Amino acid sequence: MSGLVLKDISKRFGSFTAVSHVDISVPHGTFVCMLGPSGCGKTTLLRMIAGLDEPSEGAILLDGADITPIPTHKRNLGMVFQSLALFPHLNVAENIAYPLRIRGVAKEDQKKRVDELLQMIHLQGYGERPVSKLSGGQRQRVAIARALALSPKLFLLDEPLSALDAKLREAMQVELRQLQQRLGITTIVVTHDQREAMTMADTVVVMNGGEIRQAASPVDIYRNPADTFVADFIGSTNLLEMSADSAGRATILGKPMAGLKLPTGLAKASVSIRPEDLHLTAPGGDAIDGTVTFIRDLGGTIETFIDVSGQSIVAVSTPRARPEVSVGQKVGVVLPDEACVVLKR
Ligand code: ATP
């Protein structure tokens, strides 16, 4: 396969396993985000792809060739890590030209390539500027241009946007994705920001405890989470306990759920239902009865919190579909079968 393949990669530091039996295929030209909480092993995995750490087990293949024993500088990678490490004493053009100069590219060709790269990152005319006189976003783009100067096969980025403020970060996410699509370069980004991953990735790889919990498209990860960790980590969700009643039928919070089944052989499971999939209705019918405890009006969305026998459930709606309820009111909560994802506990 052309692209990157990780085959049963593990990494141990002494007796501690940071990455455990990871298998991933990243087809050529795709954008993968590795996402997970702090300490889940995503940076360690990226460092192994970069050749900065050696796997304890497993192999790394790039376009079919085993690169596991190949040192970083011979892997044909572009890297942008959290600390940008632009050279403060060099101007923008000199920073971008640095890898070309080290490679011994002729002066004229360096200039041509730098001009192309400045255009690519929308910083034409900035070549002479000292990097200290750039904004955070501009510095980020210079780091990206420098990493891409030698047209690498693989582009690796570790939390590249985390130092930027929220608005700029969102704009840069779109910019980075568009750039990647234009260049068609295989790209792997480590992030702990799920919105960032959902914005940019073809495939989101969700990790926890050194293991891959799910690797799928953003929409699939959101709609069909593989387990309760993924359901809870991506977006917000209501995780409800589902159990069998005396007749073996599935119930949630005491209500029979005719359209749902417990996994074979299990008396209990979890159901994940997204807040925007819940409907509120009058109490006393087929729905689950509860009491409104809080309403959060965020302008664009309204969150209604409902207490059902001590469990808090949140429903989200747009202002136009705002439920006509107030705090203290009794309501019925409808869980549409098709929106319920049944997961093992
Ligand atoms: P963060 O988002 O906080 O950067 P991460 O998911 O990138 O987290 P890693 O940096 O990959 O996590 O670390 C995974 C685990 O491996 C952590 O528990 C970390 O303490 C441990 N670890 C990483 N590098 C080393 C090392 N050189 N020696 C010992 N343990 C390490």
Please tell me about this protein's structure:
The chain has 345 residues and is of the alpha+beta class. It folds into 2 domains: 3-228, Rossmann fold, CATH 3.40.50; 236-343, Nucleic acid-binding proteins (OB fold (Dihydrolipoamide Acetyltransferase, E2P)), CATH 2.40.50.140. 24% of the residues lie in helices and 34% in strands. It is built from 8 helices and 20 strands. It has a 6-stranded mixed sheet, with helices on both faces. Strand 16 (288-297) and strand 17 form a beta hairpin. The mean pLDDT is 93. Adenosine-5'-triphosphate is lined by residues 13, 16, 18, 36, 38-44, 192.
Name the features:
ABC-type transporter activity, 2 domains, ABC_transporter-like_CS, binds adenosine-5'-triphosphate, Rossmann fold, elongated, five-stranded antiparallel sheet, alpha+beta, 8 helices, six-stranded mixed sheet, 20 strands, nucleotide-binding, 345 residues, Polyamine ABC transporter ATP-binding protein, OB fold (Dihydrolipoamide Acetyltransferase, E2P)
Measured distance between first and last alpha carbons: 36 Å
Mean pLDDT score: 93
CATH architecture tag of the largest domain? 3-Layer(aba) Sandwich
CATH topology of the largest domain: Rossmann fold
Poorly predicted spans: none
The helix count comes to 8
Total number of β-strand segments? 20
Name of the CATH class of the largest domain? Alpha Beta
Output the structural class: alpha+beta
Bound compounds, each kind once, are: adenosine-5'-triphosphate
Biggest sheet: strand arrangement: 6-7-8-3-9-10
- In percent terms, what proportion of residues is strand? 25-35%
What does the radius of gyration come to? 25 Å
